[in-house]
Amino acid sequence: MELISEANATCLESELEWFQTLWLLRGKITFELSEQESALDQLAIPSYPPESSNYAKLIAEYGMTMEERLVLLLALIPYIKPAQLDILQIKNQNFDLPFTEFGESKAKNIVAYYLPVKPSCFYWQVLV
Question: For residue 116, what are the contacts with CB-CB under 8 A and spacing of at least 6?
Answer without folding.
Answer: 70, 71, 74, 75
